[in-house]
Amino acid sequence: MSNTLNENASITSSSILSLGIESTAHTFGVGIVNDGGKVLSNIRYVYRSRTGIHPREASRFMSRHAVEALSEALSQASLSLKDLSIISFSRGPGLGPCLRTGATFARFLSSYLKKPLVGVNHCVAHIEIGRMLTGARDPVILYLSGGSTQVISYLEGVYRIFGETEDIAIGNFIDTFARSAGLSFPGGPIVEELARKGRNLIDLPYVVKGMNVSFSGLLTYLESLIGKYPIEDLCYSLQETAFSMLVEVCERAMAYLKKDELLLVGGVGVNTRLREMCRKMCEERGASFYVPPAEFCVDNGAMIAWNGILHYTKGDILPVSQSHILTKWRVEDVSVKWWEG
Ligand code: AMP
Ligand code: MG
Fold first, then answer.
1. Which residue, 134, 139, 156, 225, could crosslink 263 as a Cys pair with Cβ 3.0–4.6 Å?
2. Structural domains of the chain sorted by starting position, each given as residue range(s) with its CATH number in brackets
3. CA 149 – ligand 2 centroid, Å
4. 79-125 pLDDT, tens per residue?
5. Which atom of ligand 1 is nearest the CA belonging to 171?
6. Ligand 1 atom closest to Cα of 172?
7. Is the pTM of this model over 0.90?
């Protein structure tokens, strides 16, 4: 659960109040945002398990906490249900049982309150809250989370993927290594902490193929080194190698697309060393680097609420009868009607 809100939003009064429900993987989030971009509340309940995400267990966790999260979000915003204008929910991509829990809750609220329902793409929501909070206009976006590793940018009406992982996502890679090394889940923050004490850079496979990256060979090799080198040096070398690969493909995308902004989003974007490497690359190119506060890098309801407003103002309302979830919804399939680059 989290309480830090963006106090910097310029507009505080508004006519549209959007409730956003996030439930794609481990986080049940409920946020309330107005059409001036003010985040009025952002409540998160995070399912944790030592052995990764079990979709059915995670969805049960979400059902248990849904009402609690909603009432905390309303009270944090000093609002009641009848004040809400629209109900936005994360429609995909994500884990079926988790998405269904959030969607069912959203459909119920929309029907009961007689308020429009808006279906939001989780990945587009990460990008749009990042743009709104940082002021990035037309960036290359590095989207890094437990299940995603993509280099994205806007072109002709949609966000397009210019580079991605050919196998496992960066967050999954770090978490799997951490588990093999006996560290707890999620491994990202622990690996970051240990990496700070690492001193020796171990030579590891560096796999960049054009605009794509690959982590599975690096993972296997790192796992074979556990116990042979200090864990601090392994974590340090993991971060230096994997993050360099990602920064390299971003730099290439910025050069090809002639864009001078980089926006980092997703849970792995919390990492201080990664932020430092992105910032340095941008400085060297005369470009600007943007990353939202940690609370908005991780999965959260506020980003769904904000993207719901962007859709709603362009007339995108989803009838309850057609509001099935889309577990594999690709970012290119969303028409970005609100774009003003
Ligand atoms: P998300 O899927 O966007 O919620 O992000 C979750 C992923 O972010 C997990 O794989 C975590 O291990 C990873 N993560 C969280 N904090 C950090 C960190 N400080 N450094 C690297 N990865 C992190
Ligand atoms: Mg996410």
1. 139
2. 17-127+296-333 (3.30.420.40), 138-295 (3.30.420.40)
3. 10
4. 999 999 999 999 999 999 999 999 999 999 999 999 999 999 999 99
5. 10
6. 10
7. yes
